[in-house]
């Protein structure tokens, strides 16, 4: 009962915090939207995939931007963990009735909810701009959005807990999270051999490839992902990575002092 109460309180706290900071909600949507329109328009004339000549770059890049929205939402939401630690709130939670697992799960579910809201807002803008989504398998899309948000929130939690300050967290973000997104196939197909190997172990690549397949009705457009990144591979890998991040967060809370 104590665990359920802690999960619910931390989950609701993240949503209330977002409600009090509407500019953060809009900023995480508007920035990727501008990035998608500007970069997408610039690369569209030169984008060409031999395996699929009809593949439009703005549609191709749109999926990568959804992954960016989930990633950025997780980054900006989990960085509040450092503020909670500085203010003493996290110390109070640690001595309250409830397990470390409940603490981590409550925080991650709250961050995941925020990430999903922002991703859905961006997708609504995409519908308004007539991004093709008629073939989408919405059940698969929903599953990958949740797993992507959950895994990114879990990874962000681990990095934030390990960081001694906001500056340290931003440094980790710059050298780990942003390169992971760039090397995920979000901006361009992983055509070289070393990139095809890199996407096999990149959680954001599993998200991008899975979403591309889900938006295409179950089969990703030719040339957009490696042949080894099947829908089943992406789904299974994301599930395992989400569970790993949840376990890692619980372990770090138990053994690393704040």
Quick tags:
mainly alpha; globular; 11 helices; 258 residues
Q: TL;DR of this structure?
A:
The protein has one domain (2-255).
Description:
- The protein has 11 helices and no strands.
- The protein is mainly α and 258 residues long.
- The protein has one domain (2-255).
- The longest helix has 29 residues, at 100-128.
- The model has no long low-confidence stretch (mean pLDDT 83).
Describe the secondary-structure layout:
Layout: H1 2-20, H2 22-43, H3 57-78, H4 80-87, H5 89-95, H6 100-128, H7 138-162, H8 166-182, H9 193-200, H10 203-215, H11 231-255
Helix pairs in contact: 1-6, 2-3, 2-6, 3-6, 3-7, 3-10, 6-7, 6-11, 7-10, 7-11, 10-11
Strand content: under 5%
- Distance linking N and C termini: 26 Å
Count helical runs.
Answer: 11
Instruction: Characterize the biggest β-sheet.
Output: none
Q: Whole-number radius of gyration?
A: 18 Å
Low-pLDDT regions: none
Measured as a percent range, the helix fraction is over 70%
């Amino acid at each position: 009962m104590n665990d359920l109460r802690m999960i619910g309180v931390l989950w609701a706290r993240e949503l209330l915090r977002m409600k009090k900071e509407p500019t953060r909600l809009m900023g995480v949507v508007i920035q990727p939207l501008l990035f998608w329109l500007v970069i997408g328009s610039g690369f569209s004339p030169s984008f060409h995939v031999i395996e699929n000549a009809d593949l439009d770059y703005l549609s191709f890049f749109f999926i990568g931007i959804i992954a960016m929205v989930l990633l950025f939402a997780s980054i900006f939401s989990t960085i509040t963990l450092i503020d909670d630690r500085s203010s003493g709130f996290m110390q109070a939670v640690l001595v309250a009735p409830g397990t470390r697992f409940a603490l981590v799960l409550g925080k991650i579910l709250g961050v995941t909810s925020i990430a999903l809201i922002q991703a859905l807002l961006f997708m609504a803008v995409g519908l308004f701009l007539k991004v093709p989504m008629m073939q989408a398998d919405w059940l698969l899309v929903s599953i990958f959005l949740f797993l992507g948000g959950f895994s990114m929130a879990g990874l962000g939690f681990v990095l934030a807990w390990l960081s001694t300050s906001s500056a340290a967290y931003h440094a980790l973000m710059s050298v780990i999270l942003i390169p992971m997104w760039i090397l995920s196939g979000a901006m361009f197909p992983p055509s070289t051999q070393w990139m095809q190997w890199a996407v096999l172990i990149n959680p954001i690549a599993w998200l991008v490839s899975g979403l591309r397949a889900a938006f295409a009705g179950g089969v990703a457009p030719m040339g957009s992902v490696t042949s080894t990144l099947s829908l089943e591979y992406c789904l299974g890998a994301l599930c395992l990575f989400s569970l790993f991040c949840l376990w890692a967060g619980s372990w770090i809370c138990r053994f690393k002092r704040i």
